[in-house]
Amino acid sequence: MTVAIGSACCVASGEEVAGDEVVVVRQSPWVLIGLADGLGHGPHAAEAASAFCRYVEEHASMPLEDLLTAAGEQLSSTRGAAAALLRIDESAGELEFSGVGNIAMKAMSRTAMPIFCSAGILGRRVRRLRSFRFPMTPGDVVVLHSDGIASGFDLTAFRDLDPQEMARRIVEVHKKSFDDATCVVALMRDRSIA
Question: What predicted TM-score, i.e. pTM, was given to this entire model?
């Protein structure tokens, strides 16, 4: 199995920089995807999201809960961020998820994926981190998005799009104008047809 990834971001109305950021690290046999939503929007939110993503990039092989905890310590001098991490093991066909704050995850898969992010903001006190593991199969789609996207949308409406177009359309159709809106899509593909 291999993972195809697409992402899209729309800056909040009146702002010049996004306070959301996506990071992707491929380190065979896994892919790590992170999404950070800096508190608020504008340059200070962007600083927090960027600090999270740089830390994740440099320490991607750490266990997810440890990585979030350590990244939170790095964000203590910023306004903080909501953030989530997905690690997809392409050879084992397994997804692991952990997050803090109001990042949402949706999935179209053969396995139900009831997840939640821990309450809090990275860079401030987070009481308890949890991680979740699920099997993945070719054709499964997982979406992470910031709270700048209305969460009640039906993912099946975008089923036939490639990951980049799916991310773009979700942002375009479901963004909130007053906040940064970011979406990242991971599609599991059979390696023989990737």
Answer: 0.95
Across the strands, what pairs with 122?
A: 81, 124
State how far the Cα of 182 lies from the Cα of 21, in Å rounded to an integer: 8
pLDDT tens for residues 125-172? 887 899 999 999 999 999 999 999 998 899 999 989 999 999 999 999
Place of tokens 């990242």: 184
Name 142's bridge partners. 107, 186
Give the Cα separation of 14 and 192 in Å (integer): 45
Residue 48: CA count within 13 A, CB half-sphere: 26
Q: For the packed helices 43-58 and 64-74, what is the interaxial angle rounded to 10 degrees?
A: 140
Q: How far apart are CA 90 and CA 138, in angstroms?
A: 10
How far apart CA 117 and CA 151 sit, in angstroms, is 14
- For residue range 68-87, list pLDDT tens digits in order: 999 999 999 999 999 999 99
